[in-house]
Design brief:
The chain contains 19 helices and 32 strands. By secondary structure, it is of the alpha+beta class. Among the domains are: 1-27 and 668-737, Immunoglobulin-like; 28-273, Beta-galactosidase, Chain A, domain 5; 540-661, no CATH class. The protein has a 9-stranded antiparallel β-sheet with strand order 1-6-7-8-9-16-13-12-11. A hairpin with a 3-residue loop joins strand 27 (683-691) and strand 28. The radius of gyration is 26 Å and the shape is globular. Bound molecules: alpha-L-fucopyranose. The site of alpha-L-fucopyranose has 10 residues, from loops.
């Protein structure tokens, strides 16, 4: 009974969403339409498909995607050909093009994206008449909806066309536009849009629809391919068109108001499950459009609400690009307007796809983590084949090359510890959820198989220690044995395996074997300038500002090094991180500032990684500087992060790094406020962050001091908590002051 009340209370707190709806921190808004695709348009998505909206008054384009529209085939040889065949690429699906007639003097333009309801909105007056647009991508009903409303009867007129980026011809009939076709790799695709109007009329003109004198116009769009995430089915499933027709018919039957209500309920449930409050922005500043606030922040201003927006935006983007049943978020989430996008907009496994999912569990979006787990499982079989081909027919287990497609494609260089890094995600899902069925049926077999791979591959040195042979610290330095990134990843894999096996109480013999291998792994080393070595040889350059911080994996996202249990190594990690950020070697006497991180280190994803690293090392001030660095150098007006070009890892990554500043749970305890910068200390709170062990945590503070916290658990259990400098054991579910 008590348990039920606690769960009910939690549900009430997190699902109400009321607190969030009207707060400026949860809205992006602009006083002009978005012209440039990557930096100004606004994304919506339902996990499977999405669109980029510009909100233009006269000639409006809605560019749309579906995450399985890929060229290419299975490729086992590592070639990275990104055209029609070979590795392939993630492709643009098409555009809905709207041409509105009767444009007069436009005034009061505003467009916005609500990060909690998942509704896009724009309003303006044209010739004195108010106009409104709304758009959303519905997960429950699997359609995207775009609604145009005029404040006066008869004022919406214009034409609509549907364009396929793969060359299919569109046809118009009745109130429908559609195209369908097949890619050279025989992937079938189709799109259909139904236009409904109130007042006026819709007629067909060639391949277009013409709407005349309407009061409202509502477009329902569904797009699909026949992709099936199944190697044994040749990655192909049912023809997409019947499914689209079924979904559109159901959506039209349901009607706009019900579709909208179902979407808002579904989206808000996820979006409102966690939030942070790190201060209050003065009203005059928070009243400004998002692009202006970003520019002011980048120029050195403070704007805590905008930092909260960035956190929430990462959550919004994961909800919009990663839902159960679908593919994981790729290099651009799912938003792509090119047939030849940078790096094929693929799945890069030497930081990018992992970073995309750092937020999933800590920021309370566990269900959005499912596509990554499914992807790892679905790609395992083609990866086994590719691995055997490259490493010998009797190789057990699997790993992957750096670039992966959705058809088992493995491109570019082998990233030999890739599967060990994937294994961490597989394990962490269990660590956060404590879902034993998942652990037993899904996670454990993956972990064990990857351990088998390393059991066969590790090389024994004359002193009995074990090294990963022929590795490469991404993407830096020579190929050689015992690269620290690899050593750390294999250590992490073995630890995760051991914890999983212990929890299930199985395979005692194999546990002993893995424990022995872990014990014999050549350890981390501290080099001649006090740094954590990146290689076995002490060759690190203190002035090297390479973007990757691969040898710090053990600090974050790994758990081998931390200031309390391994203080010397943590100190060395701090030196290495300062050096990568231009604050060592010839610059060691200069202050560590946002600007000292230069050149190759200013990347979409390098700031979030370093933010999380500083947080794990207990340095809140520097973690805060990394957020500022991202805002200043690698964030665009629509708050997309840029590598350059646009790469979503930075958006999703920063929303995984920020929780590390507020709550950590990787070292056997829940640590509250482990790395809060001075600017956030005065007063703040978070709600709904998740901790390993199956906990949900709320906390508020004043002057850097925790004044209240609550730890919830589905089943009552004890947990160690570090709060205001003291460690104590508390019962989760009870309210502590
Ligand atoms: C990795 C990184 C690059 C880039 C690419 C997509 O290879 O080293 O910086 O993010 O992925």
């Amino acid at each position: 009974m008590k348990k039920r009340i606690l769960i009910a209370l939690l549900t009430l707190l997190t699902a109400s969403g009321i607190w969030a709806q009207d707060k400026n921190s949860f809205v992006l808004w602009y006083n002009k339409p978005g012209t440039k695709w990557e930096s100004e348009r606004l994304p919506i998505g339902n996990g499977r498909m999405g669109a980029m909206l510009m909100g233009a008054v006269a000639a409006d384009t809605i560019q749309f995607n579906e995450q399985s529209l890929w060229s290419g085939d299975n490729n086992w040889d590592g070639a990275y050909e990104t055209g029609d065949h070979g590795f392939g690429a993630y492709r643009n699906f098409g555009e809905l093009r709207m041409q509105f007639t009767g444009a007069g003097a436009v005034a009061g333009y505003k467009q916005s994206l609500n990060l909690v309801s998942g509704i896009y909105n724009s309003t303006y007056t044209n010739g004195g008449i108010p106009f409104q647009r709304e758009a959303f991508a519905s997960h429950p009903d699997q359609v995207m909806v775009f609604r145009y409303t005029a404040g006066k009867n008869g004022k919406l007129s214009g034409r609509i066309s549907l364009w396929s980026a793969q060359g299919a011809a569109s046809v118009a009939s009745g109130n429908l536009l559609q195209f369908s076709g097949a890619m050279p790799n025989q992937l079938r695709y189709a799109a259909q849009v139904a236009a409904l109007h109130e007042g006026g009329s819709i007629t067909v003109a060639g391949s277009e629809l013409v709407f005349t004198g309407c009061r409202t116009l509502t477009l329902y769009l569904d797009v699909r391919t026949n992709y099936k995430p199944d190697y044994n089915a040749g990655w192909r499933g049912a023809d997409p068109l019947p499914q689209i027709e079924k979904e559109l018919k159901a959506a039209l039957h349901k009607g706009y108001a019900s579709l909208r209500a179902a979407h808002v309920k579904d989206f808000t449930k996820l979006a409102a499950a966690a939030r942070i409050d790190v201060g209050t922005t003065p009203a005059a500043l928070s009243a400004l459009p998002t692009d202006i606030r970003r520019a002011k922040y980048a120029a050195g201003g403070t704007d805590p609400d905008l930092e909260e927006t960035l956190f929430q935006y990462g959550r919004y983007l994961l909800i919009s690009s990663s839902r159960p049943g679908g593919l994981p978020a790729n290099l651009q989430g799912l938003w792509n307007n090119s047939n030849n996008p940078p790096w094929a907009s693929d799945y890069h496994n030497n930081i990018n796809i992992q970073m995309n999912y750092w937020l999933a569990e800590p920021a309370n979006l566990s269900e959005c983590n499912q596509p990554l787990i499914d992807y790892i499982v679905a790609q395992a079989e083609p990866c086994r084949l590719a691995t055997r081909k490259a490493f010998g027919a009797d190789t057990r287990g699997w790993t992957a090359r750096t670039s992966q497609s959705i058809f088992g494609g493995n491109g570019w260089e082998w990233n030999i510890p890739a599967s060990a890094w994937y294994a961490q995600h597989v394990y962490e899902r269990w660590a956060f959820t404590m879902d034993r069925v998942y652990l037993k049926n899904t996670a454990y077999p993956v972990l064990k198989e990857i351990c088998n791979y390393w059991e066969d591959r590790l090389k024994q040195l004359p002193d009995g220690s074990l090294v990963v042979p022929n590795g490469w610290s991404p993407e830096h330095g020579p190929r050689e044995d015992g690269v620290m990134h690899d050593q750390q990843l294999v250590w992490d894999l073995f630890q995760n395996y051991l914890d999983a096996a212990k929890a299930l109480n199985i395979d005692a013999g194999y546990q002993a074997k893995v424990a022995d291998m872990q014990h014999r792994l050549a350890p981390n080393k501290i080099g001649k300038w006090g740094q954590l070595q990146e290689w076995q040889a002490d060759r690190d350059d203190p002035d090297d500002q390479h973007r990757h911080t691969s040898h710090l994996f053990a600090v974050y996202p790994g758990r081998q090094i931390n200031p309390k249990q391994t203080p010397e190594l943590a100190k060395a990690a701090i030196i290495s991180l300062r050096s990568r950020s231009g604050n060592y070697g010839k610059n060691s006497n200069k202050p560590f500032t946002v600007a000292s991180t230069v050149g190759d280190s200013r990347r979409s994803w390098s700031w979030p990684w370093r933010c999380a690293l500083w947080a794990r090392l207990g340095e809140g001030e520097k973690a805060g500087m990394m957020i500022r660095g991202l805002f200043t150098y690698n964030l665009m007006p629509n708050l997309f992060t840029t590598h350059p070009p646009f790469q979503i890892d930075g958006n999703l990554g920063i929303s995984g790094a920020i929780p590390e500043m507020l709550l950590q749970s990787h070292a056997g305890e829940i640590n509250l406020l482990p790395a809060v910068p001075a600017a956030w200390k005065a007063s703040g709170s978070f709600k709904g962050l998740r901790a390993r062990g199956g906990f949900t945590v709320d906390c508020s503070w004043k002057n850097g001091w925790v004044v209240q916290y609550r730890i919830y658990s589905k089943t009552p259990q004890k947990v160690w908590v570090r709060v205001n400098g003291t460690v104590k054991e508390v019962m989760a579910g009870t309210v502590k002051k």
